[in-house]
């Protein structure tokens, strides 16, 4: 009962091209390339529609005298490809004569020899479809099919195929410079039996640690300058212009145990005291700046002090 309900739901869905644009674009490219690479035949799509149909609907629209080939798919799935007589005759003529005649040969029923000659083109097109859909969700229902066998007419399909919904890619193609036209039907089970590709997600997951490591390496190589400020002194410009080597400048309120560690913008980062470590000058942090103070820049202006300026500075004006 569950299968019956599921089939009714599938058939009630709109016959919109559910696979588009993945299967639509993939089949166009795959079949055209297969005809070109296998036999040097130009194949152009005049139209292509993707519809969800029942088995009965598929049997009704099979082209007269079509070459019908069964396709084996993943997990025992069966598909069908149908080539109109014009398409089959063009494939055979191009392979045997190397060119297409001015007029299309009269329609005839395809033989087993005809099927054997076009089987390579069909498989090449299906392989191309797999490659095109390798990273797309449509691969779950359109990928993994290959040529299996040939049927003389469409009647056995009612027994071979399951009573289920199918996706039908119905195309009108033009062949060669002569402009011959014919139909190509690719029929595949609507419910995919293949695996859904996970390549894109796997690549992202695999690249994430490498990206993090690379970003960390770049960040760790970046320079960050911090200045240890013992004190500040403001002098008039005229005195600065007369400074000479050997002169002594007095720093008010300078203390080796009260050093400010600041960024180049003058922002206070931490307090420290001057010392040494293994013979080199070093700073020992004794204060970590709080979040509230971290956002407030420290003015690089003159330090205010209650002590009067030295006599030398007063004399200099």
Order of helices and strands: HHEHEEHHHEHEEHEHEEEHH
Instruction: Write down the CATH topology of the largest domain.
Output: Chemotaxis protein chec
Q: Please state the second-level CATH architecture of the largest domain.
A: 3-Layer(aba) Sandwich
Kindly state the mean pLDDT as a whole number?
79
Order of strands side by side in the largest beta sheet?
A: 1-5-6-3-2-4
| Number of H/I helices | 11
Quick summary of this structure?
By secondary structure, the protein is an alpha+beta fold. 36% of the residues lie in helices and 24% in strands. The strands form two sheets. A six-stranded antiparallel β-sheet has the order 1-5-6-3-2-4.
Keywords:
rod-shaped, 36% helix, disordered C terminus, Surface presentation of antigens (SPOA), four-stranded antiparallel β-sheet, 2 domains, six-stranded antiparallel β-sheet, alpha+beta
Describe this structure in words.
The structure is a single chain. With 317 residues, the protein is of the alpha+beta class. It has 2 domains: 2-194, CheC-like (Chemotaxis protein chec, 3-Layer(aba) Sandwich); 223-242 and 249-303, Surface presentation of antigens (SPOA), CATH 2.30.330. It contains 11 helices and 10 strands. Strands 1-5-6-3-2-4 form a 6-stranded antiparallel β-sheet. Strands 7-8-9-10 form a 4-stranded antiparallel β-sheet, with no helix packed on it. A hairpin with a 5-residue loop joins strand 2 (67-72) and strand 3 (78-83). The radius of gyration is 40 Å and the shape is rod-shaped. It starts with a helix and ends with a helix. Residues 8-20, 199-204, 290-307 and 312-317 have low confidence and may be disordered.
């Amino acid at each position: 009962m569950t299968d019956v309900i599921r089939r009714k739901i599938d058939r009630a869905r709109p016959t919109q091209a559910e696979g588009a644009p993945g299967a639509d674009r993939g089949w166009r490219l795959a079949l055209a390339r297969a005809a070109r690479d296998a036999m040097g035949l130009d194949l152009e799509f005049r139209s292509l529609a993707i519809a969800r149909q029942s088995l009965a609907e598929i049997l009704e629209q099979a082209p007269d005298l079509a070459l019908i080939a069964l396709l084996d798919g993943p997990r025992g799935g069966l598909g069908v490809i149908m080539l109109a007589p014009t398409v089959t005759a063009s494939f055979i003529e191009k392979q045997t004569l190397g060119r297409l005649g001015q007029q299309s040969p009269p329609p005839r029923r395809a033989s087993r020899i005809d099927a054997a000659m076009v089987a390579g083109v069909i498989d090449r097109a299906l392989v191309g479809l797999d490659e095109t859909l390798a990273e797309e969700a449509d691969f779950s229902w359109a990928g993994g099919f290959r040529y299996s066998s040939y049927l003389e007419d469409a009647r056995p399909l009612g027994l071979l195929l399951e009573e289920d919904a199918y996706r039908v890619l119905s195309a009108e193609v033009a062949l060669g410079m002569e402009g011959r036209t014919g139909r190509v039907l690719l029929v595949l089970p609507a419910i995919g039996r293949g695996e859904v590709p996970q390549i894109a997600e796997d690549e992202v997951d695999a690249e994430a640690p490498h990206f993090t490591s690379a970003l960390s390496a770049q960040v760790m190589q970046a320079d960050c300058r911090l200045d240890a400020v013992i004190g500040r002194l403001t002098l008039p410009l005229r005195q600065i212009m007369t400074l000479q080597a050997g002169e002594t400048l007095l720093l008010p309120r300078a203390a080796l145990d009260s050093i400010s560690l600041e960024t180049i913008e003058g922002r206070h980062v931490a307090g420290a005291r001057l010392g040494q470590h293994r013979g080199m000058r070093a700073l020992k942090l004794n204060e970590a700046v709080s979040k509230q103070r971290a956002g407030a820049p420290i003015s690089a202006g003159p330090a205010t002090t209650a002590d009067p300026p030295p006599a030398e500075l007063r004399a200099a004006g």
